UniProtKB/TrEMBL annotation:
Molecular function as annotated in GO: dioxygenase activity; metal ion binding
Species of origin: Raphanus sativus
UniProt record similarity statement: Belongs to the iron/ascorbate-dependent oxidoreductase family.
GO BP annotations listed: coumarin biosynthetic process
Keyword terms, alphabetized: Dioxygenase, Iron, Metal-binding, Oxidoreductase
Tagged with keyword Iron: yes
InterPro entries: DIOX_N (IPR026992), IPNS-like_FE2OG_OXY (IPR044861), IPNS-like_sf (IPR027443), Oxoglu/Fe-dep_dioxygenase_dom (IPR005123), Plant_2OG-oxidoreductases (IPR050295)
Name of the protein in question: Feruloyl CoA ortho-hydroxylase 1-like
Keyword check for Metal-binding: yes
Cofactor section: L-ascorbate
Length: 361
């Protein structure tokens, strides 16, 4: 079918939903029809589109931290400082082999380049495991305006489960990426913990800080009217820590805690972007900040990113750590079951930092 017919065909919102969501074509399929105008349900509210215009007008930058510095106390201090003042930082020389990063990026492209019939085996309706989910936007049924992004979400339960259910084309690469990053994640959590009087990451703390892991493969295809929509809307993550591998295209923006400006996070080859999630903000009683961020849509390039969400176990109860309260701090959050917190987040559209209010006292 010629692309011009597609343009006419997508005038009806129901047809867009049918093609993108129900048939599993995603926005990648939509982009590849050659549409010249953004379908209405992707057009963001005016104030969100306004942000797109002002997003690069600042000279602030998130810290870039070299983890190979022989003075470990300096590294730890820089990380904790960034966690308090920015909620975001980049790390270089982090010990994860660069070839592992290249492999998982290549595997991400390979998954999204599969025929629609293949990818559709992993949609909510078809997936043989609730831990493997191919989808589009964030929460299409809750959103007034959709986001210009497709994703494959892989929740890790065990190597055997991943072996059985994760897609062959990216399974080994995603597992290796997750496993090879563990040492660095532990290190980051030890630094952040020590600064909160947590002497060591024992079994209990480990299950609280990093008890469950999810890897997402994200795909942001070329967009006909990038200034009218977003790749991802304003939100903070629900994780303890998010480890993000981005390609060289760029587009991630973070809201500065000191100025309120939106700051671009430029791709640094071989680096990870690390950010504090809501769970860590709650555990630290607000000392570490989870910060609003968003991703722009792009008019000229397809972009991918591969985040690892490091989370408490679903059944964990999260609240300010006893070690933090011991020094006389008043708790500002109540105890909540982590899975309840996550469920609340996914029930609604992206809405900035509002999720964390769910746990406020």
């Amino acid at each position: 079918m010629a692309p011009t017919l597609y343009t006419a065909r997508f005038a009806d919102p129901a047809e867009v939903t049918e093609f993108v969501v129900n048939k599993g074509n995603g926005v990648k399929g939509l982009s590849e029809t050659g549409i010249k105008a953004l379908p209405d349900q992707y057009i963001q509210p005016f104030e969100e589109r306004l942000i797109n215009k002002f997003v690069n007008e600042t000279d602030e930058a998130i810290p870039v931290i070299d983890m190979s510095n022989p003075d470990e106390s300096k590294v730890a201090e820089a990380i904790c400082d960034a966690a308090e003042k920015w909620g975001f930082f980049q790390v270089i020389n982090h010990g994860v082999p660069l070839e592992v990063l290249d492999n998982v990026k290549a595997a991400t492209h390979m998954f999204f380049n599969l025929p629609v019939e293949e990818k559709s085996r992993y949609t909510k309706e078809n997936s043989l495991s609730t831990n493997v989910r191919f989808g589009t936007s964030f929460s299409p049924r809750a959103e007034k305006a959709l986001e210009w992004k497709d994703y494959l979400s892989l929740f890790f339960v065990s190597e055997a489960e991943a072996e059985q259910f994760w897609p062959d084309v990216c399974k080994n690469e995603a597992l290796e990426y997750m496993n090879k990053s563990k040492t660095m994640v532990r290190k980051l959590l030890e630094y952040l913990g020590k600064n909160l009087n947590v002497k060591e990451l024992d079994k209990t703390k480990e299950s609280l800080f990093m008890g469950s892991v999810r890897v997402n493969l994200n795909y942001y295809p070329i967009c006909p009217n990038p200034d009218l929509t977003v790749g991802v809307g304003r939100h903070s993550d629900v994780s303890s820590l998010t480890i993000l591998l981005q390609d060289q295209i760029g587009g991630l923006h973070v809201r500065s805690l000191s100025s309120g400006n939106w700051v671009h996070v430029p791709p640094v080859p071989g680096s990870f972007v690390i950010n504090i999630g809501d769970a860590m903000q709650i555990l630290s009683n607000g000392r570490y900040k989870s910060v609003e961020h968003r991703v722009l849509a792009n008019g000229s390039n397809n972009r991918i990113s591969v985040p690892i969400f490091v989370n408490p176990k679903p059944e964990s109860v999260i609240g300010p750590l006893p070690e933090v309260i011991a020094n006389g701090d008043k708790p500002i959050y109540r105890d909540v079951v982590y899975s309840d917190y996550v469920r609340y987040f996914f029930k609604k559209a992206h809405d900035g930092k509002k999720t964390v209010d769910f746990a406020k006292i």
